[in-house]
Amino acid sequence: MTTLINCQELQREEIESLEMIFGSAWSKYDENSETYRLALERNSEQRIELQVTFIDGYPIHNPPKYSIFAPWLKGTKRQKLMNELENVIKQYNNEPVVYRLAQTIYDFLDEKIIFLNDEQHDNLTKDKLNDTCEVDYVKYSKRLSVPQLSPEEKYSCPEIFTDEPNEEDRASVFQAHCARIEHECQVQMVLDELKKHKKIATAKHNVYAYRVNTETGKIINECNDDGENRAGEWVLEPLVFNNLNNIMVVVTRWHRDYSIHMGAGRFTAYKQCCAEIIKKFLK
User: Fold this and answer.
1) If we measure between CA atoms, which residue out of 37, 42, 28 comes closest to residue 105?
2) What domain range includes position 219?
3) CATH of the domain at 221
4) CATH number for the domain harbouring residue 110
5) Tens-digit pLDDT profile for residues 222-246
6) Residue 24 vs residues 39, 40, 41, 101, 186: alpha-carbon distances, Å
7) Which residues contact residue 136 at a Cβ distance below 8 angstroms, ignoring those fewer than 6 apart?
8) Which of 151, 236, 260, 271 would suit a FRET pair with 213, their CA atoms being 20 to 30 Å apart?
């Protein structure tokens, strides 16, 4: 009985979080079911609706039931997305997972391959690829002889922009930091640089999220809760929602009064701090 109550409480918290993150894009299918739908798109022609049913035992014992509605998405591309969603379900077993499913769909929409239609893709035969991708092997061999720098040698710590602390809440103080990054190796550089400040190094939480383009064109979305369960998702959400790339945001939290419990309000604070700093940073 206790486990069932815990599942219901986790479901309630997750639904509230999704409502706050996605607004009107997140809605209940009908009042007589526990099925919700989430409309995700990068443009009007490529829209994917994620349909999720919160079944008994989710998330502790069972994964949610889910499906996608996207008439334009067919064949191997559709199967690719379904495989990626299933991998997320397996990877985050026993955890609230709907936001991660949505993030996976956004990543899929951001991939350049979906802008090729099936006919164009099928016509790219091996011979045509060879014709259009001529390589100067002499120049190529010369490039191979040049010593390659490691990412840590190639990139340095970027400039870090720090916002004013948010001290409106009696329980905690939040402060956001933002930097432009070109490679994942710079994530740790930014953290190390921030933690040179004793106050930041000894803070209760340094929650961070980032989005970065790889050399292959893939967008990597990552976040770290730093002990504040699910807080990283709230910092990542404004980056994903605004389709911002090569950006890292860290939100530092200090406790002011341990006797005051912030509850779910702390997640809103993380999200607001992130949204405010990227707005100022990108001006």
Assistant:
1) 42
2) 155-281
3) 3.30.230.30
4) 3.10.110.10
5) 999 998 888 898 899 899 888 899 9
6) 9, 11, 13, 18, 35
7) none
8) 271
The answer to whether residue 95 is domain-embedded is: yes
Residue 245 makes CB contacts below 8 A (sequence gap 6+) with: 211, 212, 213, 219
Residue 161 Cα distances to 209, 248, 274, angstroms: 15, 10, 12
Q: Which long-range contacts (CB under 8 A, 24 or more apart) does 222-228 make?
A: 222/184, 222/187, 228/253, 228/266, 228/270
149-192 pLDDT, tens digit per residue, is 777 778 999 999 999 998 766 678 999 999 999 999 999 999 99
Same domain, 110 and 163: no
Residues in Cβ contact with 7 at an 8 Å cutoff, skipping those fewer than 6 apart: 56, 57, 58, 59, 60, 61
Helix axes 265-281, 231-241, angle to 10 degrees: 40
Alpha-carbon distance of 158 to 192, in angstroms, equals: 12
Other Cβ atoms closer than 10 A to 169: 16
Asked whether the whole model's pTM tops 0.70, one would answer: no
Both structure tokens of 83: 């495989």
Chain mean position to CA 24: 20
Instruction: Tokens 């640089």: give the residue.
Output: 193
User: Tokens 């486990």 sit at which residue?
Assistant: 3
**SS3 for 234?**
helix
Can the peptide bond before residue 59 be classed as cis, meaning omega within 30 degrees of 0?
yes
For the cut 50, the answer to whether the pLDDT of residue 124 exceeds it is no
Do 198 and 94 fall into the same domain? no
SS3 content of the chain, % helix, strand, coil (to 5): 45, 20, 35
